[in-house]
Design brief:
- There is one protein chain.
- This protein is an alpha+beta fold.
- The chain is 30% helix and 27% strand.
- It has two domains: 7-98, Beta Barrel (OB fold (Dihydrolipoamide Acetyltransferase, E2P)), CATH 2.40.50.140; 122-421, Bira Bifunctional Protein, Domain 2 (BirA Bifunctional Protein, domain 2).
- The chain has helices at residues 56-63, 115-120, 122-125, 129-151, 190-200, 236-257, 259-264, 269-273, 284-293, 306-313, 368-377, 386-393, 406-414, and strands at residues 17-30, 33-39, 44-50, 70-79, 87-98, 155-156, 162-163, 175-178, 181-185, 202-210, 223-232, 281-283, 320-323, 336-337, 340-344, 346-351, 356-363, 399-405.
- It has an eight-stranded mixed β-sheet with strand order 6-10-11-18-17-16-13-12.
- Helix 4 packs across helix 6 (236-257) and helix 4 (129-151) packs across helix 13.
- The two termini are 40 Å apart.
- The mean pLDDT is 91.
- It binds one RNA strand through strand 1, strand 2, strand 3, helix 2 and strand 17.
Amino acid sequence: MPPVVEIRKVSEYAGQEVILQGWLYNLRESGKLLFPLFRDGTGIIQGVVVKSAVPPEVFDAVRGLTQESSLRVTGKVRADKRAPGGFEMDVLSVEVLQCIPAETPYPITPKDHGIEFLMDHRHLWLRSTRQRAILGVRHEIIKAVRDFFDDRGFTLVDTPIFTPAACEGTTTLFEVNYFDEKAYLTQSGQLYNEANAMAVGKTYCFGPTFRAEKSKTRRHLTEFWMVEPEVAFAHLDDAMALGEQMIAFILERVLEKRRPELQTLERKIENLERIKLPFPRMSYDEAVKILQGKGSEIQWGGDFGGTDETLLSEGAERPLLVHRYPSAIKAFYMAPDPLRPEVALCVDMLAPEGYGEIIGGGERLADLALLEQRIEEHKLPRKAFEWYLDLRRYGTVPHSGFGMGIERAVAWICGLEHVRETIPFPRMLYRLTP
RNA sequence: UCCUCGGUAGCUCAAUGGUAGAGCAUUCGGCUGUUAACCGAAGGGUUCCAGGUUCGAGUCCUGGCCGAGGAGCCA
């Protein structure tokens, strides 16, 4: 029996007989020649069937194949300059697992389709070369993030998905019935991360988060994945340094391991290669002045809109760290700057090329009395935060961290128009299926 | 929630208020190196839904449903 081989490794088997297991991607015909394209999830290779060279039943079996029919094919790998991947396969025999009937053809043809149709068929769309490339880059980014923290002494501590209260305002929470009481799907692991950091020093969580925002833009999902590190005794500058080092590490890894995928996606790779440490830093005050100079309507005290973020990052080669936003527009747990209490020790990282905010974080309030005051000012249910206040009652220390939305990072690194392609099954305002 | 645009064949789209069409897909035929192959033929329609205007509506009007882009909000 010839060995079963993945298509991405066929180059190691030139001149040898192998078995491929996969699906028919496309079939071209030229008289008594057949050119079936096989895919197996690791790559695509063209097969060649010459009528005079194979038994009639083999020729007929291949000729009858329909797109996405599943099969095991035996053949001989051969280097050929005419083949896109440099190799093609002379088919010797084929075992058809399922031939899709012609009356019910595979819906996604190798032609143009609209986004609604593709989203309705997301479960099949994932098979396309482009979607597979995105899944590969997403995987690499997640792996890189975990390696980055694991190698630096961080402990992954999982935070809960059911939560009893909001951590950043109640309007954007998904409410669920939790037996006889209300619970909410988490919108951040942040508060629990702080407890975990007091236990292990350096921690991170990585999991899905949920926001019931009625946002319908290319940057929003209702369910998205976030990685959130939190470090005891760290200050704002430490959080900024950690964030930029993490991004640099991710880029280096993706460029090392996923170059073919980036090429498939037609990403301008040189734009990623240019990004070197350190990343520029800018205060909110400076950012507002620059934006006003560029014609933005923004006033000091207001938050940036999507266009403002684009204006700030346009022309920049590296991600931009904007720090010290007004406390009034930031979450209740942000520490005020001791030199200027009206601004918070927080930071947002804006990705280049108009991709906007990919990281948000900063230094947390460590003082019990001030935190109690903030909870009251934000009209948050004090009782639900008693455990959180305990962290300030028992050995409070300065601590900082941030959150990075995986999908926005994937969209930026892959150069995608919309985050819906960065996650296998996106959940959006008007999309819950498949 | 608001603003803008859209919904016609399985898919992508055409069609001055006057006989609903093309390309791809499907079926059949042709081609010994095709690259989203090509060439020829066939089949394929509740024009999103409900009203209205009109001799006549895919087209105009009203309401609804669904979707896309954006705003606000956010990672």
